[in-house]
């Protein structure tokens, strides 16, 4: 078990040196436009962190089957598309059969959200924290969470979900990392450099930047250039 407020190393050494990693009780938001690599970054963070700390990955976007192929691809180096299309070379098949030990070393649990309501997710997370000692929860992605309380107002709904995640992290002393979509305003900026994300780009709610302890953005200039 990790001590209260302990540092959670991400496994990316340069990042950990500069930012100091993450901490328990923190809500961390990772924002980016579609196709920037948010899910892949979450997959890699999950693999790195789960080597020492139990991690629960909740996917509200991809199916559990597709997400699992991403995990296997990251560990084996075999492209996920090759696996899904079953066009594997012999050498790739050999690599896939040799990676099972890599997963047994990790404390990683994957959940296909199904019910996206914040209330249902909170109850599920509570159970997993009790049953499996989960200390880090990863959610992909924030805007897919729903609330019966504010179902007719997207801004209030996202604000409510953001606040609930922060409360959950604080009350249970767990780290929560959630990805977030950014608004299309990023694309409307004139220069490639000007398309760098900023806090005001977080989609549908100003509450996200208030609730989050850390906000990270993914930006790939080659995507625009």
Explain this structure to me?
This protein is of the alpha/beta class. The protein is built from eleven helices and eight strands. The protein has a six-stranded parallel sheet. It has a two-stranded antiparallel ribbon with strand order 1-2. Strand 6 (136-140), helix 8 (154-172) and strand 7 (175-181) form a beta-alpha-beta unit. Helix 2 crosses helix 3.
Low-confidence stretches: none
How is the main sheet built? 6 strands, parallel
The run of helices and strands is EHEEHEHHHHEHEHEHHEH
Strand content: 15-25%
Q: Shape from CA axes?
A: globular
Classify the helix fraction into a percent range: 40-55%
Radius of gyration: 18 Å
What number is the mean pLDDT? 86
Oligomer type:
single chain
The side-by-side strand order for the widest beta sheet comes to 5-4-6-7-3-8
- Annotation field: number of helices: 11
What structural class is derived from the secondary structure elements? alpha/beta
Number of strands: 8
Report the span from N to C terminus: 45 Å
In short:
The protein is α/β, with parallel strands linked by helices and 225 residues long. The protein contains 11 helices and 8 strands.
SSE diagram, text form:
Layout: E1 7-8, H1 13-19, E2 22-23, E3 27-32, H2 38-49, E4 55-59, H3 64-76, H4 80-84, H5 90-97, H6 100-104, E5 108-112, H7 118-132, E6 136-140, H8 154-172, E7 175-181, H9 185-188, H10 207-211, E8 214-217, H11 221-224
Parallel strand pairs: 3-7, 3-8, 4-5, 4-6, 6-7
Antiparallel strand pairs: 1-2
């Amino acid at each position: 078990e990790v001590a209260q407020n302990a540092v959670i190393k991400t496994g990316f050494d340069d990042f950990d040196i500069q930012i100091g990693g993450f901490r328990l009780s923190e809500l961390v938001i990772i924002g980016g436009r579609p196709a920037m690599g948010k899910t892949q970054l979450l997959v890699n963070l999950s693999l790195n962190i789960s080597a020492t700390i139990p991690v629960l990955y909740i996917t509200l976007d991809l199916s559990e089957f597709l997400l699992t192929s991403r995990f296997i691809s990251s560990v084996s180096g075999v492209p996920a598309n090759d696996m899904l299309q079953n066009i594997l070379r012999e050498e790739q098949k050999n690599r896939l059969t040799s990676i099972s030990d890599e997963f047994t070393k990790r404390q990683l649990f994957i959940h296909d959200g199904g019910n996206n309501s914040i209330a249902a997710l909170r109850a599920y997370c509570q159970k997993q924290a009790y049953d499996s000692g989960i200390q880090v929860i990863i959610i992909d992605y924030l805007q897919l969470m729903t609330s019966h309380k504010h179902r007719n107002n997207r801004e209030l709904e996202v604000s409510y979900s953001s606040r609930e995640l922060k409360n959950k992290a604080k009350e249970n002393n767990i780290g929560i990392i959630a990805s977030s979509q950014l608004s299309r305003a990023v694309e409307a900026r004139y220069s490639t450099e000007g398309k760098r994300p900023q806090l005001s780009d977080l989609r549908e709610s100003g509450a996200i930047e208030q609730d989050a302890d850390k906000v990270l953005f993914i930006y790939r200039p080659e995507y625009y250039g």
